User: Which sequence fits this backbone?
């Protein structure tokens, strides 16, 4: 099979790439041109295979997949972009547009039955996992999914989430430009990704470059897609278009120091300024692709013979989230809750995941009636305006 190879030369995160071997010759000048947006993550894998896939063949492949799998994709509902199940390839939206909810809902639904029980002590776990192909996850959502994968795999692991992920096939769709003015993926190094997908599509003018990201993806594309050789020129064309799309877009210079910076700025006056405007509605949490708190409740049947246990998304921005037995609330004010939420993204969980846990998708910014924005907060706390 013909393929287009890129071989990694450096392994320091966020460093500028100086060399790349493409079909055995080094294109230093090309990379220096592209260094503004090509971070090390983009070329993280040792060997990258790229193929050419025409849009016609892609649609034909999706039609074949639909015969074997349930398929979800970026599509439209009453004119609004949305990740949803589709019935035909023509339903897929191939543009880079933001959605209200992220694709995390397919693996971690807003409400999910965990088990049913009988009052005699018997329990039956419910794991509603099924093979699912998801098309069109943008880099920010792929970064978010990686964070969820790590979170739900911790300790004994979350069997419901992990079973669904195990059966999922992820087909990413790279963004050639920023999707709207509220997204800031490029500030938190989430505008590109080199792993966390089974297949990745890079949109050319009409057609696509296809990248294989896993063994599962390798088997999958061979079964469903008719690909041909990708040339250096195609990749070059794509890289230039992406460079243009993200020109003048710069990451936080001090991003890696955010945990310390946020820890040292607990008393910054901006917290009170922003917190005093917060309505404690929780919308920002509901739409966030990296928030994973949930609440669990038991519901007893009317006949008292049994019941079910359900979990639902919860939100640390809601005023009663931190209420404990006895009625004490250890995060009374909206300011405390906002500070906690933003520290989860740029401090507490950033230490654990070793990356910004805000992927800059902008969903919370679009959802917030008070116009509270993690980018603005980070720029103020880190004293680093764009
Ligand atoms: S905090 Fe906001 S911008 Fe960041 S990942 Fe969550 S929803 Fe997206
Ligand atoms: S969406 Fe805005 S107003 Fe609502 S809880 Fe979040 S920050 Fe506060």
Assistant:
């Amino acid at each position: 099979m013909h393929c287009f190879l890129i071989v990694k030369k450096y392994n320091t995160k966020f460093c500028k790439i100086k060399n790349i071997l493409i079909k055995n010759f080094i294109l230093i000048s090309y990379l220096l041109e592209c260094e503004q947006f090509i971070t090390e993550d983009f070329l993280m894998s040792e060997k990258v295979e790229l193929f050419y896939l025409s849009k016609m063949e892609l649609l034909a492949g999706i039609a074949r997949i639909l015969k074997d799998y349930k398929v979800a994709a970026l599509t439209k509902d009453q004119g609004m972009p949305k990740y949803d199940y589709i019935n035909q390839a023509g339903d897929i939206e191939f543009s880079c547009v933001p959605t209200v909810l992220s694709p995390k809902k397919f693996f971690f639904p807003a409400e999910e039955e965990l088990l049913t029980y009988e009052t005699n002590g018997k329990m039956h776990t419910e794991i509603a996992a099924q093979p699912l192909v998801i098309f069109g996850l943008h880099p920010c959502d792929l970064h978010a999914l990686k964070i969820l994968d790590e979170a739900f795999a911790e300790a004994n692991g979350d069997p419901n989430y992990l079973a669904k992920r195990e059966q999922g096939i992820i087909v990413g769709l790279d963004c050639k430009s920023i999707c709207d003015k509220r997204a800031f993926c490029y500030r938190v190094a989430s505008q590109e990704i080199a792993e966390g997908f089974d297949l990745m599509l890079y949109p050319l003018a009409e057609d696509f470059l296809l990248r294989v990201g896993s063994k599962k993806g390798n088997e999958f594309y061979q079964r469903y897609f008719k690909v041909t050789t990708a040339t250096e020129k195609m990749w070059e064309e794509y890289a230039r278009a992406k460079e243009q799309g993200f020109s003048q877009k710069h990451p936080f210079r001090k991003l890696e120091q955010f945990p310390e910076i946020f820890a040292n700025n607990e008393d910054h006056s901006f917290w009170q300024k922003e917190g005093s405007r917060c309505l404690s509605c929780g919308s920002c949490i509901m739409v966030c692709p990296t928030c994973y708190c949930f609440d669990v409740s038991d519901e007893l049947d009317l006949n008292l013979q049994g019941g079910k246990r359900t979990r639902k998304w919860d939100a640390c921005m809601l005023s009663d989230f931190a209420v404990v037995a006895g009625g004490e609330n250890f995060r009374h004010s909206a300011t405390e809750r906002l500070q906690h939420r933003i520290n989860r993204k740029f401090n507490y969980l950033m230490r654990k995941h070793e990356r910004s846990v805000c992927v800059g998708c902008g969903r919370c910014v679009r959802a917030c009636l008070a116009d509270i924005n993690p980018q603005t907060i980070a720029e103020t706390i880190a004293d680093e305006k764009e």
About this structure: The chain has a mean pLDDT of 88. The chain has two domains: 48-245, 255-381.
